Fold:
Amino acid sequence: MATIEAHVPAHAHHTAKKKSLLWDLLTTVDHKKIGIMYGATALFFMIIGGIEATLIRIQLAKPENTFISADTYNSLFTMHGTTMVFMVGMPIAVALFNYIVPLQIGARDVAFPRLNALSYWIFLFGALFMNSSWLFGHAPNTGWFGYANLTERQFSPGLNTDFWSLGLQALGAASIMGAVNFITTIINMRAPGMKLMRMPLFSWMAFITSFLIATALPVFAVALFMITFDRWWGTNFFVTMAGGDPMVWQHIFWMFGHPEVYILILPAFGIVSEIIPTFSRKPLFGYAVMVYSAALIALIGWGVWAHHMFATGMGPIADAFFTISTMIIAIPTGVKIFNWIATMYGGSIKFTTAMLFAVGMLIEFTIGGVSGVMHATSPHDLQQTDTYFVVAHFHYVLIGGLIFSIFGSLYFWFPKIAGRMMNETLGKLQFWIFVIGFNMTFMPQHWIGLLGMPRRTFTYSADLNLGGLNMLSTIGVLFQAISVIILIANIIYSARRGPRAGTNPWGAATLEWATESPPAEHNFNRLPTVHTREPLWLEAAAVEDAARGTPDPHIHMPPSSYWPIFTAFGVMLCMALFMTGIWWTPLIGLLWVFVGAVNWAYEPTH
Amino acid sequence: MLFLIQAAGDAVPVEHPQTTFHPVTDFGVTLNELFANTFWWTMSILALVVILTLVIAIRFREKPGDAQPKAIHGHTLLEIGWTLIPAIIVIFLTIPTVKVIFETQAKPPADALTVEVIGHQWWWEFRYPEEGVVTANELWVPVGRPIHLVMHSADVIHSFWIPRLGGKRDVNPIPRGTQGEKDKRNHLMFTMTDSGSFSGQCAEFCGESHAIMRVSARAVSADHFQQWVNAMKPAGPVVAPTGENATQIAMQSNTSATTPVAPQQNAAGQQPAAAQAPALDLDQLPAPTGIGSAVRPEISAEQWAAAGRKVFESSMCVACHTIAGTPAAGVLGPNLTRFGARPTVGAGAAPNNMDNLQRWIHEPQSLKPGALMPGAVHGIGDQAPTGLSSREIYAVASYLMSLK
Structure:
């Protein structure tokens, strides 16, 4: 990934003396560099999570396999889920928010650049902290959902669950800081004339997603504190013999967990809403409805959490309520699909790799949406939940919806980030191999589930007669792996050898395409004034002149700072010392954080 | 399409013993009828989206000399249309769904057979309070009579799922102080329409050996069921759990503890076969050559079983296991009454035969990772190993297999 970073030269005329690349990355507060670091880290963890998935599928390739032990398997599926949600799905969206949103809204940086750096470093240290558990042989093994009371010390005496809960606490804190930053940036730092209803859809989704993160993650933080207190300080939130109720964990977890699903999928909606109009050469169909439907999804998304719990015995009234609310949320989602299709209608569609992934997303995500409505049929969900049918469903949503969009976004925005085009032949090859592999892996899992195989099982009986379908599913993983290897090769190759991109290779409409590729450190020479939703289609000359014409003589950019990484290190130190079980040692980490915070506060920013 | 899916994946139910497509209860049939409704509506929408996407993508692909397409910003009527039509479809989906939600969670009929289901890491306990019978891992039910399962867990959350009997239901540990009016135990209700043996397994992740927490249902005629009940009843006075065992159980889950098994005389007056055979001094016997060795021809199976009973009742086995009609009255582990008739050892860990049973007694973890029963050589947690010799293991296995 360093190759990309190497191609982000500082174009600003006023940059201070040359610093080493490493020191620059450790102390940068530039939203673009932080975005690249977020993206590179997320891709790294995507490989880790992918390796975990591959090991899981090898174990399940045939019945009664003994490739890995039960305990290792349980750690693998726990860490696969946790990694893919918190270290891949969220940060890769945050990477794009970081890089693209300030450019799209015509800002020089985010509102709080040092906070931005802090949230990256806490994210990185939290992720490394949790993954270090593999080295100690205490990898989390109670599922990414960490259902109490299995997570209580009585049933999980090792440090596994502590690595999980503390690591997630750090990742959640990082996400909340990032969300606050984006909300402030989008409210305060839009270019003159960019009313909210002129803002590109991707920035809108970043805005709505940030509200969801800022409100849902604290709910999860509370749950994590409860289990940490239960495990270390003798509280009894989920201890049944003391009157605690494990159902409470499930309600709190999914009250966070369902908005989390929309935190993952709304950025994907944003990406597709940029790619499809660009390559159809038409504005987005029903812009206002697209904004309102996303806001509605985010709102209703708070009232559907217990559809993850239809089998828990909530009673018919709760079951009926969550059935109805879940069915309702399908409506605004469907509206979006139809609006994307209508955007393509009458267009002149250029099938670049990015567009292939976007159109692929429409179909694959709809398959996931349709099986979602099947789960919402709550009485029959009693046959579906906790089986491979659900595994198939949410992989169609998260890979078919999110990862297809993310891959599309890489091809779409890479020219802006690296200044060079990605190889389209390799890109199309990657797309088709991925489509084959993805569907081969997850389509059979619908049947595997309905034919009686539960999730999270390290082995299955040969009597189930599901060896063939499972083998097919495992072979699909091979294709997906090849596809991702081609993607990485393409990124590395194109960053060095790709043809120069120019400012707006796709003829797109939004402000980021008015800047240099890659953009100067200060993004725009003068802040552009916009009057339309598609400035580069309708008012290109003025906008391009602002972006690349005579620079404003009074550009002020924040200086780099090492206090964010210093402070974030204190957070990791605190967590690591906590694991020793000696009560006063984490105070050293807290003191470290305090020193960092004080120096941060008094650091000159001019 | 649903038919195609069934045909593709599941032509003959026997090929997939845990299929959801061939229910054998009224409950399962109701769920599948409801599913068919949702399935058809949603698959129609999927087909529409896929066809529209592909047709439009191909029809409007870039062609040389394309003019700049007309900018269409929206179409109010169309957008209202594709909001309202899905909304109407949602109504068609929701009304029957809500109806079935209330139907399937109604009060059980008065003549229902109540069975208490208790989940344990990683096995199932079944108590028949009216019949005074306790068994494990194999649920016996009569065909044609409504069955009412009342479920809770002794440790962590499990989920009871035998796909051909209908949907699953979580088996939760019950917070202390919620008995009586606030009873938080879960329920499942169904009536068997077919006889046979149907397999299932725990569906909620419950720790290391979640994958090997299997269960089966044995559906038989009402007469056959009554015979089974009679045969399960203890011949002698029943020892209710007292002292430490009872306390431990109460600590684990206060509502569980025990449905006191009514001290009834066995109608058939059966006594486990082993009890009658003459005892035998194990030390005088040549040791079996190891697990899997053939039954030694010079000693009869009855003699081995009688010796095994002695070992069983004088070792730590009885701290956890009950065998009706004998002094063995532990309640932490599975009830082993008529164990020899069970299809599997270790809740589905392996088929029930002398080899596997010996392996299990020697080291349960070799068949089921993390199993909470101590082996002969290795203990588990703070429980000491049983210390049984291979000779004693062979004897105990013979005894258990004789309990049919």
Summary: The two ends of chain A are 32 Å apart (CA to CA).
